[in-house]
Design brief:
single chain; 14 helices
Amino acid sequence: MPGYWTLLTLVLPVFAVIAAGAGVRRIGWLRPEADDSLLKLVVNLLYPCLIFSNVLGNAALRAPVNLLAAPAMGFVTMAGGIGLAYSVAKWAGFATGKGLRTFAFSAGIFNYGYMAIPLVEALFGRETLGVLFVFNVGCEAAIWTVGILVLAGVSMRDGWRRLFNAPVFALVLAVVLNMSGAGAWLPQIVKTAVAMCGASAVPLGLLLIGATLVEYFEAPGQLVDPKVTPLACALRLGVLPVLMLALAALLPLPREVKQVLIVQAAMPAGILPIVIAKHYGGQPLTAVQVVLGTTAAGLLVVPLWLQAGLHWVAP
C-alpha cells in the first residue's frame, strides 16, 4: 500500500497546476476575459473527449452493475453531503440569507472532477477512471436538483435540464458503443484525435481553477472566517470522508465503485459552488471561504484520507 509521502507526490502536481493557473493570472498571461471561452472549450469539447476516450473499450463499463451503482453512489454521496452540511450549519447558528444555504451547498459538494481525475487514474488505472465519469453523472444530478433546491429554492424540473449537456451526451454515446462493441469500427485516427483533445482537459481545467481562485486574494482578510472555515474543514475533510469510506467498506459495491469512493471521499470542496452561488443569488464570499479553506487544508489532508481509504476499503 502506498505511504503518505508517495500519495503526497501524486497530490502535489494537481495543486502545482492550480498554483500555475494563479500565477499566469497574476502576471497577465491568462486574462479574465478569456475565462468564458476557455471554460466553454473545456466543458463542451475537451472534457467530453476525455470521457469518450476512457469509456470506449472499458471492460469495467460492460458490467451493468457499474452503470447502475456508480451514478447511484454519486447522487447519494453528493445529496447526502449537502443535506448533512445544511443540518450542521443550521445547528451551528447559520441563518437563511446570511450564508446557511450557500455554506450547505459549498461544503456538501466535493471536487469530483478535475482534481479527482488524475488521482483515480494514477492509483487505479483506466477502467476505474471510466467508472468515475459514470459516478460523476450522479454527482451532477444531485447538484442540479437537491443542491439547487437547497441553494435557491429552484424547482428540480429546472435543474434536471442542466443534465442535458455535452459531457453527458459523450458518456451515453461511449457507453452505447462500448456495450455493443461498435466502438471497434471507429477509425483509429478518430480515436487518437479524441484522446489528444481529452488529454488537455484536466490541465486546462486546473489552470482555470487557479486563475479563478486567485482573484479573491485582492482582499485576503475576507478569505478566512472564524466560523465558516473551521466548520467547512471539519465537515468536508473530517466527517464526510468517514461516512463515504464507511459506505465503500460496508456496501456490496463493485471494486471500481469502491475505488472511486476512496478518492472522492478525500476531495476538498469543489469550485463550482462559487460560480453557481453568484448566478442563483447566494453568498459567493461564503462559497469562496469554504473552497479556499478546504483546498488549502487538503494539500496535507488529502493524502491522509487516501491512505486511510486504501487501508480500510481496499486492503
